[in-house]
Design a protein that fits this description.
The chain is mainly α. The protein has helices at 2-12, 17-33, 35-39, 42-54, 60-76.
Length: 84
């Protein structure tokens, strides 16, 4: 799982909207299937997704995918992830 999180970090360094949308979709799918594994990575994933929401270089439609991914990550875990 740590390798996947590292790959996600690399993907989010780019502003290519297709890559960001795809990475968010992967987070959503993994959250649904492997909730225990994703809950261990909440503290890493939520800040990455938050960065997408805060940047002005990403289209608003792509940000919707990040919002959905944040919700799925939080639902998969114990709800301990923080946006602050």
């Amino acid at each position: 799982m740590n390798n996947l999180v590292t790959a996600m970090k690399l993907d989010f360094q780019y502003t290519d909207e297709f890559s960001i949308r795809t990475a968010c979709g992967l987070i959503t799918d993994i959250s649904t299937c492997l909730s225990e594994a994703i809950s261990q990575s909440q503290d890493t994933l939520v800040p990455i997704l938050k960065e997408i929401l805060l940047t002005s270089q990403v289209n608003i439609e792509v940000k919707l995918h990040a919002i959905i991914a944040i919700g799925d990550v939080c639902l998969a875990g114990d709800g301990g992830a923080s946006m602050s």
